[in-house]
Design goal:
heterodimer; A: about 250 residues; mainly alpha; 11 helices; about 75% helix
Chain lengths: ~250, ~110
């Protein structure tokens, strides 16, 4: 925190940053709230009790990982493998953590713990745009505002989904909603040739390795797909950046 | 799955997720990440999701099922087409579910 510099007007500046962060998260909520509702509904239809379903959102707070965990729970995978899968799926947050670390190094431990608790894809996108604008003195309040807004929306939409899911009778093909939701999640991630190559390779290996025990038919094809994506990226780079790789 | 196992997953999932998010805020200087690892991170979502989607749409009881009689494959293809053309998450999901529902009823 920056106590000395905020003494003249202890609330107005941090308060304004907080509200701006919350405001700038609002357009993103339009895309997030449906997923929260669907998560809640799918979790209860997969047989997860309401308290545990809500706790996934409260404690893990990571959309894709939560969906994948529900899919693995429905497939009776072992808890250890599910936690390992959550780890792999959320590894991309390393990049966010590394990217924002220089902006939060000076903050107290309480601030660091709070902000990392809120470091999702959506909060990262909005907060990193704020840091690019400069005047960083109270920017951590902006980060907090945007992260808390997303967190609250994720909790409420999950609750709504749990309530709706309890009304839907079992066995009307809701299990098909999971692959369809994954399909909606994967399309925006397919932006260039290496990402397509990673997806196609992982898909092909998942068919070949479908009968592996312990649901390893997910992790091993995923790791192989990541390797293929990297290989294609390096080959494209050698060909002279011909493919407009955004990174 | 019993409730104790569910709580293992929730708390274990929480622990690994926050260790990752906290990592560079506390433990590791950002320049310590090897280049190939940093670049590989962006392929995690497409690879993991594809490995989840493809068997769900193409396999029936462990064998490949490539035909119009595979309702999941047909509905998934229509959803992918809608998602690709519109870029709209909501329309993608609804079109897939509606197609699947109609095919199941017919």
């Amino acid at each position: 925190m920056s106590p000395s510099s905020s003494e003249a007007d202890p609330f107005s500046q941090p308060g304004i940053e907080f509200l701006r962060g919350a405001r700038d998260q609002l357009p993103i909520l339009l895309g997030v709230v449906p997923f929260g509702v669907i998560f809640g509904a799918l979790a209860v239809s997969a047989g997860i009790p309401a308290l545990e379903a809500q706790s996934f959102s409260l404690f893990i707070f990571a959309g894709s990982a939560q969906f994948i965990a529900v899919s693995l729970i429905a497939g009776a995978a072992s808890p250890f493998l599910i936690i390992l899968t959550i780890l792999v799926v959320n590894l991309r947050h390393l990049l966010y953590s590394a990217s924002l670390a220089p902006h939060v190094y000076h903050l107290s431990n309480l601030w660091k713990i709070s902000l990392s608790w809120l470091l999702t894809d959506e909060a990262y996108v909005v907060a990193s745009a704020r840091y690019r604008k400069g005047s960083p003195e109270f920017a951590h309040w902006y980060f907090l505002g945007t992260g808390l807004t997303l967190w609250a929306a994720w909790q409420l939409s999950t609750t709504l989904g749990i309530a709706l899911g309890a009304l839907i009778p079992p066995g009307i093909g809701l299990d098909f909603a999971l692959p369809i939701t994954f399909l909606a999640l994967i399309l925006p991630a397919l932006t260039d040739r290496p990402t397509w190559a990673a997806a196609c390779a992982a898909g092909a290996f998942s068919l070949l390795l479908a009968n592996l025990p312990f649901k390893l038919g997910l992790l091993i094809p995923a790791v192989l797909g990541i390797g293929v994506g990297l290989a294609v990226e390096m080959r494209s780079a050698k060909e002279g950046h011909a493919n407009g790789d955004p990174v | 799955m019993n409730r104790a196992e569910l709580w293992m997953i929730i708390l274990g999932g929480m622990a690994v997720t926050y260790l990752i998010r906290l990592s560079f805020f506390f433990f590791i200087p950002p320049d310590r990440l090897p280049e190939w690892f940093r670049r590989g991170l962006r392929y995690i979502p497409p690879a993991v999701l594809a490995a989840l989607i493809v068997p769900d749409l193409l396999l029936l009881d462990g064998t490949l099922h490539l035909s119009f009689a595979n309702h999941r494959l047909v509905a998934g293809s229509i959803a992918a087409l809608v998602g690709w053309r519109t870029g709209n998450t909501w329309l993608t999901i609804v079109s897939g579910l509606l197609t699947f529902g109609l095919l199941t009823l017919l």
